[in-house]
Amino acid sequence: MTDAFDPSALFGGGAGGDNPMAGLLAQVQQMQTQVESAQEEIAAAEVTGSAGNGLVTVSGNGTGDITAVTISPEVVDPDDVETLQDLIIGALADLAARRDALVSEKMGPLGGGLPGLG
């Protein structure tokens, strides 16, 4: 005589066991909520990059939009436009680095995936 196949036995469900799939789904839903929360925090964040000890600053949000540029009058020299251009590029690079650091801070712990996978 053969026993009937119980598909719940594959997932630990049924008589005498918790269903690990239900636990895994709960972890996925929790991670999804955390990711959405982190994305909202990143989008709402104001990030500022600067160059030349603050002579040029560029502000933006966490999604990549630039919201403001401030240039100190002392770096505006019609005979030396290259320096101003370099300062703007430096401020933009600093802004990008700070935005990347913000994203890593907010999303980094969520990037590890689920325990037991990967």
UniProtKB/TrEMBL annotation:
User: Which is one Pfam family of this protein?
Assistant: YbaB_DNA_bd
Coiled-coil intervals, chain numbering: 21-48
Alphabetically sorted, this entry's keywords are:
Coiled coil, Cytoplasm, DNA-binding
Report the leader peptide range: none
The organism's superkingdom is given as Bacteria
Q: Where in the cell is it found?
A: Cytoplasm, Nucleoid
- Report the function annotation for this chain: Binds to DNA and alters its conformation. May be involved in regulation of gene expression, nucleoid organization and DNA protection.
Family, similarity comment: Belongs to the YbaB/EbfC family.
Question: NCBIfam families given for it?
Answer: DNA_YbaB_EbfC (TIGR00103)
Assembly notes: Homodimer.
What is the protein's name according to its record?
Nucleoid-associated protein RVF87_05730
Question: Which organism does this sequence originate in?
Answer: Gordonia hydrophobica
